[in-house]
Design brief:
This protein is an alpha/beta fold. It is built from 9 helices and 6 strands; from the N terminus they run E-H-H-H-H-H-E-H-E-H-E-H-E-E-H. It holds the Pfam family HAD_2.
């Protein structure tokens, strides 16, 4: 049985820490309406959840929005940041887990496809919690589902991704974290997530503290690497 604990926790932001998904969807639908285009379908919404801003802009251009990629990104992000400052709800259990990680001095990173303006708007409501590292869309060349955001965060923290837990809620985010070789805790929100051998799927963060997260991490290693068990060496 593995007795290892995570070396760091890498947090997604939108839909994982705070419930910004309705704000994003409203801003995206508003963009279509302003250009007299048909509303986004549920299939479009699913593609957009957790997608990089570049991927989102490409989709809007393909749907007929007569703006440049940069103009689309700026328009949506400015509106989302303004709406967040008007108020946004925490996702269940996120605030408590953040506090418990801080109390146990666990290194944390915020890893998001949102731009720095949106990150700053969210940080204003996160009480006194600070992250050791923040990786936003402005800090990487390739956003999620590319692994670069999580690889960048782990490098800045000085840990191997295999020794981290990444907490995500979207298909794009999960793809990024899995590709980066993180141990991935999937907490479904706007999009259903089916059980997979390479994920820990948990319905909520409510009741999950540092001890529970460490146990989920250890149990996952035992399932993924049953022959190595407690002898599995930490990554170099």
């Amino acid at each position: 049985m593995s007795t290892r604990t995570p070396g760091a926790v890498l947090w997604d932001m939108d839909g994982t820490i705070v419930d910004t998904e309705p704000i994003w969807l409203a801003a995206q639908q508003g963009l279509m309406q302003r250009h007299d285009l048909p509303p986004l379908t549920p299939e479009h919404d699913e593609l957009l959840v957790g997608a990089s801003m570049e991927m989102s802009a490409d989709l809007f251009i393909s749907l007929g929005v007569p703006m440049s990629k940069r103009e689309i990104i700026d328009s949506i992000q400015f509106e989302v940041a303004d709406r967040i400052r008007e108020g946004v709800e925490w996702r269940p259990g996120a605030r408590e887990l953040l506090r418990d990680l801080s109390a146990n001095r666990v290194p944390t990173a915020l890893v998001t496809n949102s731009g720095l303006g949106i990150v700053q708007a969210v940080l204003e409501i996160l009480d006194d919690h600070t992250f050791d590292v923040i990786v936003s869309a402005d800090d990487v060349e390739h956003g999620k589902p590319h692994p670069e955001p999580f690889l960048t965060a782990a490098k800045q923290l000085g840990v191997d991704t295999r020794d981290t837990v990444a907490i995500e809620d979207s298909i794009n985010g999960l793809g990024s974290a899995v590709a980066a070789n993180c141990v991935v805790l999937a907490v479904p929100h706007a999009v259903a997530i089916a059980p997979r051998h390479d994920l820990i799927v948990h319905p909520t963060l409510q009741g999950v503290g540092w001890a529970e997260l460490s146990q989920l991490f250890a149990d996952h290693l035992d399932r993924r690497f049953p022959l190595e068990g407690a002898d599995r060496k930490p990554s170099a």
